């Protein structure tokens, strides 16, 4: 539900002198700003996102008015991703003449300092060459450039006074640090080389994520246990060093964003993600940290090193036609699937792996083939899970498949519908991966390394 910000019956208007440098916002830009913050469910952060959205459009208007020579890229700002807009109260991922730009809205309430997120200064993914304060007068529907500071100047000021971050992962920055001559910003981005303001290089956080994954899973699980209508902030359960790793993965931020809003979202249809968020968190960590099985290699009649190490057995002469004639277990399964309307491409290749769970010997078949595509290459993964003996699966066996967006499917055998196998099919692009989990109970589980399909 979106809170109305401009209820005339509740707002007491005060006279504010019009800034001669202020530029008007169009009704379309205001409506787009409302759209950006509709998915932000926390009232305070919703309001800040609204102000930041107005600041973004105000900055765009200012650039277009002041210079036709500048090359600016304002596509896909962080506002377009609710999880980034929610956790980072600034507008990142912008560029002017190849300089990285970060915008922060300055509202009507004015003090001598402004609270800025620590992330925009210390995380390579969101760090900028220049930070620009945009004065937003939402009632007048105008914005103006208040001031700017470079990354190097911020660091110099910070060192000089030994500025320490606050416990909630923010800095309280004096407004006096900001250069209030916007024309100088235009001069700098026209005349300076990007190398004049060096930024630390982006480091790969995957190793650190792997090292502390269990600790992070344990701590992030606390987010789900909050009382309805309330939740822990990240800074309350994580150290900043742990938080830095989380912020490096938008997928993890998206999970946290969804969990923190679960109480409100529960009034809507429950997705697969919301049914089992902790299970999905484990799947997500596997997607982010585990080496992948590249099934494209199966079309070269070979298993990759990871598949071989995990005891996958390639079916070298497999095809749906030969499978129907050879009398093997896979032929019986393929026949049953086709009789139930499941189409299997003549190009399909397959392999299987035996799993020992709780004293049961299960066999998981994986079949894959490329699909016809119009925009970008796609592939499909067909999974078949049964017992090596071919008898009915025990009650409670589950087959779960997840990707970077959530749990795609979760099937289980039950008493009412005894079956000899479970099967599911998923489709993705060559940039997508799937992680598969087989379980007997919550404490008897095996998650396989992610599947991908890439010819690179």
Automatic annotation (TrEMBL):
Domain of life, source organism: Bacteria
InterPro entries: DUF1822
One Pfam entry name: DUF1822
Protein known as: DUF1822 family protein
Organism: Planktothrix tepida PCC 9214
